[in-house]
Design brief:
Oligomer: single chain
Order of helices and strands: EEEHEEHEHHHEHEEE
Bound molecules: adenosine-5'-triphosphate, magnesium ion
CATH superfamily of one domain: P-loop containing nucleotide triphosphate hydrolases
Number of strands: 10
Length: 226
């Protein structure tokens, strides 16, 4: 079963004269252990596509399936549960909870999902370690650099071993060496446990780590990369 299937998805923001067609008949399938890079100019619909795939936004038209979940038919309650249990997100600008430490920012999502505490703590520390933040688990976001905060957000997205992880520019504030390291970590998480990932990146140097690169322009997929 594919991790993600989008069929003829349209997203129109607003209505009448103000209507913006952000996605136009987007059809995309991502296999259950696939790592897809998504590229395209600013305003082309990348964040909108991720938001719909992760159940944060409803499509105006079309079918969206994540594993067995027909999320375009879900109501708000079902979507909240779906997001908590099955998807991980890293948003543009990585929002952490400011009064929680790095480790606690990871643990809070596993508590929401009702995971075992000891197991969760071990996983949080292992992820922070792999992200090069081993010595900084007890720091608050304000005591970390921008790139470090971004890595905490990546750890948080991977924390619950989601079926689908969605990254919006996860490497934008990292230098290219660290950026590639983070992409490799995402790759090993995807390949190691049958998680699928879509990573938005402006950086063409990052795309070779992905299995394929999908290109979007003006709300349309112009290249599926396969
Ligand atoms: N809430 C909104 N209301 C109205 N229009 C919106 C809204 N969000 C996005 N748009 C418009 O939809 C289009 C796609 O936006 P989107 O955020 O998906 O682009 P993007 O590819 O992520 O761009 P960037 O690389 O700058 O982040 C743009 O024209 C944008 O102005
Ligand atoms: Mg965006």
């Amino acid at each position: 079963m594919p991790a993600l299937e989008m069929k003829d998805v349209r997203k129109v923001y607003g209505s009448g004269e103000q209507a913006v067609v952000a996605l136009d008949h987007v059809t995309l399938t991502v296999a259950d252990d696939e790592f897809v890079a998504l590229v395209g100019p600013s305003g082309s619909g990348k964040t909108t596509l991720l938001s719909i795939a992760g159940g944060l936004l409803r499509p105006t038209e079309g079918i969206v399936r994540v594993g067995p979940h027909r999320i375009d038919e879900y109501g708000p309650k079902e979507l909240t549960r779906f997001r908590r249990e099955f998807v991980g997100f890293v948003f543009q600008g990585a929002n952490l909870v400011p009064f929680l430490t790095a480790r606690e920012n990871l643990l809070v999502v596993s508590e929401l999902a009702g995971a075992d505490r000891r197991h969760a703590r071990a996983r949080a520390d292992r992820l922070l370690d792999e992200l090069g933040l081993g010595g900084k688990a007890d720091r608050l976001p304000a005591q970390l650099s921008g790139g470090e905060r971004q890595r905490v957000a990546i750890g948080r997205a991977l924390m619950n071993e989601p079926e689908l992880v969605l990254f919006d520019e996860p490497t934008s504030s990292l230098d290219s060496h660290l950026g590639e390291q983070v992409m490799q970590l995402i790759r090993s998480e995807v390949k190691g446990r049958g998680t699928a990932a879509i990573v938005v990146t402006h950086d063409r140097r990052m795309t070779h780590v992905a299995d394929r690169t999908v290109e979007i322009s003006d709300g349309r997929l112009v290249d599926q990369g396969a």
